[in-house]
Design brief:
Bound molecules: NADP nicotinamide-adenine-dinucleotide phosphate
Number of helices: 11
CATH architecture of one domain: 3-Layer(aba) Sandwich
CATH class of one domain: Alpha Beta
Amino acid sequence: MKPILIAGCGDIGQRVARLYRVQGASVWGIVCSETSARRLRAGGIEPLLGDLADRTTLKDQPTAEAVIFYFAPPPAQGERDPLIQNFLATIDPVRLPAKVVLISTTAVYGDCQGAWITEAQAAEPQTARGRRRLDAENILHRWGKETGVPFVTLRVGGIYGPGRLPVVRLEKGLPILDPVESPYTNRIHQDDLARVCKAAAERGVSGEIYNVSDGHPSTMSQYFIDVAKALGLPLPPVVSRAEAEKVMSAGMLSYLQESRRLENRKMSEELAIELRYPDLAAGLAALKRN
Ligand SMILES: NC(=O)c1ccc[n+]([C@@H]2O[C@H](COP(=O)([O-])OP(=O)(O)OC[C@H]3O[C@@H](n4cnc5c(N)ncnc54)[C@H](OP(=O)(O)O)[C@@H]3O)[C@@H](O)[C@H]2O)c1
């Protein structure tokens, strides 16, 4: 089996690693903290401790004929992603990988005013967060064309699942936007995303972009309400958009500026994925069973 190298081996990386480990593959994971390195080792993943911001720390990466998953987020500031640039620059041209799969985000589309969109939608990010992701996509695209290494880009919606739910927010009783004014959001369960990543490595067509979501978007407010009900937490108070501007964090407000609904047909058909959690209700029902 080809070696697996996961650059940014956090939650999703470790889920992907487990899918390969059960098949007997060797998996390496790049992380930047000792704690994460210990966690990887305990999970049978060979840790590579390094900082993607500093090329000199990226050593001994088993890139030759490897399948590389690039999952590290861009830096928190600026409009560029120097981290993926550094990572790709350290790959020795005589040790090229077999394929690279990148996790990007749907923020690259910008606001679509709630429309259903496919991968044909133009990327017009309206936030620095979205522009950094598009920069990462472009860097991989250029490198893939230059080296001839096949690459696939996944534009992923909001990831949810155990440990990734807005529990603290709901416990604090923070408000949500009036559902009538709330934008649409798209979601994917963390375990389904890991399976999509592996499918993209196996069946994704080089140079292609795949939207990754369960295909059942709802408004952001409805999401908070559904999670509260599933977890038996109090329903959050509702505020108007004008009130939200005063009481919500800048981060939350930026998410409320963009609304789009993702078609996931290309993912389902070309990557031949049947989701375990085809909608939020299925994902939340599984929480109760576990
Ligand atoms: N949250 C969402 O809903 C959402 C939606 C779409 C896409 N995404 C993106 O999906 C990707 C995977 O998500 P995830 O939940 O698996 O992320 P995660 O758990 O935060 O994992 C990210 C990993 O990247 C490593 N990393 C970060 N900066 C690094 C650096 N400078 N050098 C070396 N390693 C570095 C971290 O190492 P340490 O563990 O040592 O810190 C961590 O292991 C991320 O890019 C995320 O932004 C998220």
